[in-house]
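Pasting as-is:
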Amino acid sequence: MKRGLAFGAIAGVALLCGGAFLLAGQSTVSPDAIQSSVTRTPELINTAWKLPVAATFNADIKWQSNGSRCGPASVANTFRSIGEEETTEAEVLEGTGKCWTGFCIIGLTLDEVAEVARTKTSRKVTVLRNLTAEEFREHMKRANDPGRRYIINFTRNKIFGAGVGHFSPIGGYLEAQDMVFVLDVNERYKPWLIESERLFSAMDTIDSDGDKKRGLLLIE
């Protein structure tokens, strides 16, 4: 269903249900699936937190306030890591006209999150989509560059067997293990590691809201 056709029905239900309808799709992944689908080996997680970019987050992710605001939360956390002034969801959304109800109805697309980021920073913000697996891996190798920040848009279904589209910052890349460190902004998931091929597969999917592929947001 397209955004224009769905907005009225979803907004009405959201108002009646206090937003519960909007969040339902974000809570369909079981705790067991969250635990078993990705890598959280303490030794590897500790190593990942010491990567140059991950270290700038100080092992302190500010969780998204509700299931629809992963995009703004990802931007806010990323901004905090590079010293920008707007470091909360509310601050990055202020004046953008997005998510003014407190919820991002149907969520935001990759292009919309890029628009939010550009409104609040003078840094270069680039949307990267339609990447090949090799191009994606090359970007992940550069995710350890302190002058670059990546936010990934992917579908949880490809990784956890359930769930919907999501945004989170990339904390870096463990090249020896070919694993990407995803700084998940959802408190139920917390940061995790995953093989680059699997993460690429989850990113290389169509976002039905906009009919474009998901991808990466590069801030530099």
